[in-house]
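task queued by scheduler; priority normal; single chain, no ligands, no partner chains; default sampling; output format set to structure tokens
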Amino acid sequence: MKVDTKKLRDVQRKIAKEIRTSDEYKKEEIKRIGGFETAFFDDKIVCAAVVLDAKTFEILEKKHTVSKVPMPYIPGFLAFREGPAIMQTYYSLELEPEVLFISGHGVAHPLKCGLASYVGVELEKATIGIAKKILVGEIKKEKIVILNETRGEEIKTREHAKPLYVSAGHLISLKMACDLVRKSIIPPHKMPEPLHEARKHVKKIVSEIQSS
């Protein structure tokens, strides 16, 4: 499967110009949050979405989709591999979350267009990118610095565990993104609750499919 990465970079540059890292909502206006996680088997991608109450973290809705993997894994281009499945799953939801937690980067990306930013702009939704490692740049005083610009933050969510790397995706500030992630940590879980529950759900779906 040949991939035209030059064309994809052009798309990323175009989307990056549309990203807004200012807050679409005040904290008290955020009633529901959504978590999205993907898993792969054979040539399929499974995407799970879980919608939670933003205050109690009660699970309000779960959905999943199964589709064909559109392209191979290429670092920096996760948006085009996982983005379509995430958007398809979002559209299947009956409840609309104000903020989406995405397993990947937002603007902490070489072209400022990671998976969370891509999905946010395409859906015109507030999105947060949460990743387990940085793609580019360096960590200075717990900030992700790329080309002398702060684009994300390192957050330690559990003792003796590796940190998470949080960045704004779209329609949210880095401060609000980090505040929401910290608020969504329920010990002993390392991941914020929307992603923890989405990960559990996607693993369950893959297991059911493979055993059927």
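post-processing summary
- The two ends are 29 Å apart (CA to CA).
- Helices lie at 5-16, 78-92, 115-123, 174-183, 193-211.
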